[in-house]
Specification:
The longest helix is centred in the C-terminal third of the chain and has 30 residues, at 139-168. This protein has a two-stranded antiparallel sheet. The chain has 227 residues and is mainly alpha-helical. The two termini are 17 Å apart. The protein contains 9 helices and 2 strands; from the N terminus they run H-H-H-H-E-E-H-H-H-H-H.
Amino acid sequence: MSEREHARSVHPLAKLAAALVVAVVLLVSLDAVTAGVALAAELALLPFAGVPVRALLARTWPLVLAAAFGGFVTVLYGVDSGAVLARAGFATVTEGSLALGGVIALRILAAGLPAVVLFVTVDPTELADGLAQVLHLPARFVLGALAGLRLVGLLVEDWRSLALARRARGVADRGVLRRLLGQSFALLVLGVRRGSALATAMEAKGFGGTGPRTWARESRMHAVDGV
């Protein structure tokens, strides 16, 4: 079994639990050691996650940008302590704010990296099966959320199609704000219509029933999930 297949064989709930544990620990702590150790461990385990390098880079650059921005703002406007290193108007850089900015950047990276890996390697259908069968969440809520998540990709394609159609008709020639508002409203109307049709189809197929439900795929936790 390849690393990618092995990573995908781990139960989605186990991945979600691991990501939540890391996030909670980082939220209640505010020191560079905890964030640094967590980030170092994540980077060491990253080759075993089975995520292609190109896909990982494409999805982590917003996280790196957010960490850099958060650290930079904290350095300029964070709590001042220690010696003053630089001053420019309302912004003051001190030894304390510089250290705090580094901690904030590390925390964002350490908390966000597991979420990126989780998003790339978890199949939404398998996660829905786990939520309903293992955690016993209401099946109607889980299936509705899964159906809505499946529509996100279609909304992206609809946005592109709307942009091309409006450009071909000459509606989007000028006025960026006006074009954005008009296209957003058109996408909203299209999304509501598609959601209503999907809800009707799901009700017709018995997804809204109150009786015992059967599942096409059995979802179970194994020893590897605990590891």
